[in-house]
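re: that complex we talked abt at group meeting.

here r the seqs, copy pasted straight from the sheet so there may be weird spacing, ignore it
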Amino acid sequence: MNDKITVENLTHTYGTRCALDNISFTVSCGEIFCLLGPNGSGKTTLFKILSTLMKPTSGNVDILGFDLNTKSKAIRKLLGVVFQHPGLDIKLTVTENLRHHGHLYGLKGKTLKHRISELLERFGIIDRTHDIVEELSGGLRRRVEIAKAMLHSPSVLLLDEPSSGLDVGARRQLSDNLNSLATTENILILLTTHHLDEADLSTRVGMLDSGRLVTVGTPDELKDIITGNVVLIETTNGDTLSQAIAEKFEVSHTLIGNHIHIECKQGHEFVKEVAAAFPNDIRSIRVGKASLEDVFTKLTGNPFV
Amino acid sequence: MVNVLLPVSTIWWREIIRFYRQRSRLLSAFAQPLVFWILIGSGLGASFQPSGTSEETTYIEYFYPGIVVLVLLFTAIFATISVVNERREGFLQGVLIAPVARWSIVLGQALGGTTLALLQGVLLLFLAPLIGIRFGLSSLCLTIGVMVILAFGLTNLGLIIAWRMDSTQGFHAIMNLILIPIWLLSGAFFPSIGAPSWLGWVMKLNPLTYGVTAFRNSLYLDTATINGNMPTLGFSILIISLFCILTCLGATYTASTKTV
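got the structure back, here u go
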């Protein structure tokens, strides 16, 4: 057993549609690896393959030394999985849900009872032990789901869009919980998201677009792809204005609809000059530090939606 | 052994708890057939004497075994229909990725549905004396035994359908197109004597005919008022046991071949 997930040349097709196109990456224990991509980028397909729900069309996946194609039963014992759709039975209490899960993983009796209390304590839901799940808020339910996934002490925690449907406070809480798990338990956390702020908090990010893994790196490394600032100009005639700006200022740009993304070193100076040069063509103009969204747009030429 | 029993029992237990917390399900699976029985049984009783039955057998009495089987069928349907949604949602996906054999998941679900069906069927047995059916201990034990086999077979049939369907609407369509006609043509509603020969053949080939017959025969074991061209109790039990084994294998196979 090693402490890595290694994905090599992974491809998956649904009929003629290619959902994952020759993807390769490696994640180690203690890392929070985030697969970031817009809807339809292939995140959920990759997630289903990693969680052993689906066999890939081709390629190799090795999870902690076990080949996914031949050793899925051994892998299942090592995985804790939180699905995008609610994974709790809402008619059962918190404890009943956890006990049910524990039994499926061979835990029982005092060991199970102790483990349930330990996790509910850790995630701050010990006072809701006997509540029926349908009475809990979205944020609390997500905490119960993570407690459930962690019950059998997995080495790998997979989460599909864990922050969907959560408010800002609950999202922050979730992020804190994951960070504490990665550091104190040294487990490997792999999550998918289309929330850029969530990706910003992870150790490394892999960007997916239309089934391709565009890039992998720490959030800072990725943002370094863009030097200086990003200026975003909204206009009514994107084609002509972008050409005019490119000719006058000699800057590279990406045009998406009527939004012109421009990368430049001195963004604030550039904004003044461009606003003075084309006063009637600009509807709005914004300058800021590069975000992961800007990196995605630069690398794919597509908007992050 | 513990490794096998623990997942089966926990899945079974969940079905029971869910039912306990959704008691409105009693209305659809138990009360509805009961209302059918009282209304149709009383209504038709005035003008319809089932062929091949004695003068003393009222229609409401003739209809009784069929209604018990309908309760078993409805409970099996309502216990398994939830699988359709749960398969797409996170809960069952979470169960499917646990390190347990697929057959143990299906067995747990089937035993859960069987228990619920049996509880409701037995509840209905208490009404039998009200319409003049008398049975002794051996008859009661045999009747319950037949109900167990039938309930398990019907729940597995429900699971075969549920694991294949992508929507509950699809399940309802199958229920109206196949399951209800199977029940109607099982001798529950009318006897095969006097029916057109093609219908007689359909009824002969219908496994539920043997279910209703086995139930009817075991119920009247002590009073022996069985008549007409009905199959024997032994043969009926043999057929429903085969039905039970085949549906159980079918449900396990269906669940094993489905990814999500």
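couple things i noticed - The longest helix of chain A spans residues 168-184. Chain A touches chain B at residues 48, 51-55, 73, 76-77, 79, 81-89, 91-92, 96, 99-101, 103-106, 108, 132, 145, 148 (CB under 8 Å).
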